[in-house]
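Quick question, first post here. What does this chain look like in 3D?
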Amino acid sequence: MTEVASKLALREIAAGGETGPLVDRINASQAGSLPGLLGFQWLEAGRGHIRGRFEIAAKHFSPHGLLHGASIVALADTACGFGCLASLPDGAIGFATGELKTNFIGAAREGGVSCEARLVHAGRTTQVWDTEIRSEATGKTIALFRCTQMLLYPPSKAGGHAAQGERS
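> Answer (accepted):
Ran it through. Tokens below.
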């Protein structure tokens, strides 16, 4: 996770960097991973928010012909992960998803699926993100997603106190 944050140079956002280059780095970083394979595109990213989408294709469907819930969850979880990396507090080096929940309230069969994620709690040890997922064809909300990210810090130095969540 630290390598991903470094690769994306997400600390630029904390210093007021441009969001365009960040979106480009996020999109490029997905090659060969699940978000890249599912065709996710990130449109806007900054501290505390991110917007993305995918164009519905056969790979996003379940065997019985509906948009697979995992495609929706993957979009929302990926949005929150990249958003979390762009919003890490000073000293944090990464995160791990501690909990996620999705309410499926609609469906989409064609066109695009978009999401907008926003940071609703920014603590020193956790972040909570909410995401709304919409059908671009109808404009209707098809899912609501919430996750808690547990923030990671480097191990403490010898002789020092243990970092939060680390046993001494």
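Confidence is low (pLDDT under 50) at residues 11-17.
Residues 69-86 form the longest helix (18 residues).
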